[in-house]
Write the structure tokens for this entry.
Amino acid sequence: MEAHSYNNTFSLTIFATMLKEYGLNYDKRRTNQGMQTNLTLKEESNADWLPKCDEPAAK
């Protein structure tokens, strides 16, 4: 990313451009439930991206 003068900036447009350089395609589309993408999280990234819930849900 530094080669493109994006030292600290990280947007979805830049992210999609960087994926194209690696031969990957980033797709997103608007649905009734929100935005849908073709990306999935790996197991080791779940702690960084997914919310935590320490207490069990009420029954």
